[in-house]
C-alpha cells in the first residue's frame, strides 16, 4: 500500500523558487498508473518554465519530465501493466502537480508508458523520454509535427543515399537524432559538435563530426559541401540560429530543417523558398500534445523493443547525490551550459 504523504520539489508560484516540501500521494484514475519514482533526469525546460513562467498554469506545480520507476498501483481499466513493473515515461506537468516527476510518486497515463528492458537501470531509462520524443517527432512524425520520415516506425523504411546534418550533435536531442537517422539508413550523418565527443558520436551512428570549436557556423555550409554536397535533413537540436541558417543553406530542394525552436524569419528568403520547396518545422517533444498523440502512442508501443534491440541506446549519465535537494543545483548547471554529452540523473 502506498503512503498518503510524499516529498516533492515544489514550485509554489509562477516564476517562484523551488522548495522541497510534502504533498499528498495521488490515486490513479481510469487508464492511469501510480509510479514509485526511482530516477528522474533533468532538462533545461524545467528552468525555462520556472524563470519564464510558461506551459504550466496550475500552482503549486511539480515539474520534471523524465521518470523511471516501479508501478505502485493501477487504475480502473489498466490491463497492460501490473504492480511491480519497471517502467519509464514522459510526464505531463501542465495538467497538474500529480503528473510531475520531481516527487516520490507520480501519475502516468498508460498510453505513454513503456516497460524497461531488464538490461537497463532506472537511471539509464530515465534519460530517454523527452529528448528521444523530441528527436523522433521532428524526424519521424507526419506534418505538421515533423518531416514524416517514418510515422509508423516501419523497420523496412530506409533512406539509403540520403544525408543529414545534426547541429548540436552531442546534446541529448542530437544524440537521439543521430541514432534515429542511423536506423533509417542515412548514408551521411554529419554531427556538428565538439571534437571531444567524436568517438562517442561515431559509435552511435555519426559518419562525420565537424568540430564546432574549429569550424564556426558561418563556415558550416561550406564544410558540409565538402563532405556530401547538400543534405536532405537538418536537425538543430540546440536552438542555434546561426546553425539553422547554415543548415538551411545546405539543404537540397524540398529538404527539411527541424529545430527545437525554429526561427525561419531570420534566414528564409521568402521570394525563392516556394520555388525550392525547403521546409522549416519546430519539433515539440511531447506525446501529450494533440498533434502528437497518435504518434506518441505508436512510439511508446515500440519503445521497449527499440531499447532491447539496441536501435536506441540510453544516454550517458552523471548521478547527482542528494535526492530532491540536488535538482536545483543540477538545473543551474544546465542553464549555465556546463553539461555536454550526458544526462544529469537524480535517484529517489
From TrEMBL:
Q: Which residues form the signal peptide?
A: none
GO MF term set? oxidoreductase activity, acting on NAD(P)H
Identify one Pfam family in the record.
Answer: ADH_zinc_N
Tree of life domain:
Eukaryota
Report the residue ranges that make up the Enoyl reductase (ER) domain in this protein.
16-345
Checking SMART domains in the record gives: PKS_ER (SM00829)
Q: Which InterPro entries match?
A: ADH-like_C, ADH-like_N, ER, GroES-like_sf, NAD(P)-bd_dom_sf, Trans-enoyl_RdTase-like
Record protein name field: GroES-like protein
Amino acid at each position: 500500500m502506498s503512503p498518503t504523504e510524499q516529498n516533492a520539489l515544489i514550485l509554489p508560484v509562477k516564476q517562484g523558487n523551488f522548495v522541497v516540501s510534502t504533498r499528498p500521494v495521488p490515486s490513479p484514475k481510469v487508464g492511469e498508473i501510480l509510479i514509485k519514482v526511482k530516477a528522474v533526469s533533468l532538462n533545461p525546460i524545467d528552468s525555462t518554465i520556472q524563470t519564464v513562467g510558461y506551459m504550466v498554469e496550475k500552482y503549486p506545480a511539480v515539474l520534471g519530465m523524465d521518470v523511471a520507476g516501479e508501478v505502485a498501483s493501477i487504475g480502473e481499466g489498466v490491463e497492460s501493466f501490473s504492480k511491480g513493473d519497471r517502467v519509464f515515461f514522459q510526464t505531463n506537468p501542465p495538467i497538474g502537480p500529480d503528473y510531475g516527476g520531481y516527487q516520490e510518486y507520480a501519475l502516468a497515463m498508460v498510453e505513454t508508458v513503456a516497460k524497461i528492458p531488464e538490461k537497463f537501470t532506472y537511471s539509464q531509462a530515465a534519460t530517454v523520454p523527452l529528448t528521444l520524443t523530441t528527436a523522433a517527432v521532428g524526424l519521424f512524425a507526419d506534418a505538421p509535427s515533423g518531416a514524416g520520415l517514418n510515422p509508423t516506425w516501419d523497420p523496412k523504411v530506409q533512406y539509403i543515399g540520403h544525408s543529414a546534418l545534426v547541429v548540436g550533435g552531442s546534446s541529448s536531442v542530437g544524440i537521439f537524432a543521430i541514432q534515429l537517422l542511423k536506423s533509417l539508413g542515412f548514408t551521411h550523418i554529419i554531427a556538428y559538435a565538439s571534437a571531444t565527443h567524436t568517438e562517442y558520436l561515431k559509435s552511435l551512428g555519426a559518419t562525420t563530426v565537424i568540430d564546432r570549436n574549429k569550424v564556426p557556423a558561418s563556415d558550416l555550409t561550406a564544410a558540409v559541401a565538402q563532405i556530401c554536397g547538400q543534405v536532405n535533413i537538418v536537425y538543430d537540436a540546440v536552438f542555434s540560429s546561426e546553425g539553422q541558417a547554415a543548415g538551411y543553406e545546405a539543404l537540397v530542394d524540398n529538404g527539411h530543417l527541424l529545430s527545437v525552436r525554429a526561427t525561419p524569419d531570420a534566414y528564409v528568403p521568402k521570394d525563392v523558398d516556394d520555388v525550392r520547396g525547403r521546409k522549416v518545422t519546430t519539433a515539440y517533444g511531447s506525446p501529450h500534445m494533440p498533434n502528437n498523440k497518435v504518434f506518441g502512442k505508436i512510439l511508446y508501443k515500440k519503445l521497449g523493443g527499440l531499447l532491447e534491440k539496441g536501435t536506441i541506446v540510453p544516454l550517458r549519465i552523471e548521478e547527482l547525490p542528494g535526492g530532491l535537494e540536488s535538482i536545483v543545483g543540477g538545473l543551474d548547471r544546465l542553464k549555465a551550459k556546463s553539461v555536454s554529452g550526458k544526462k544529469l540523473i537524480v535517484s529517489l
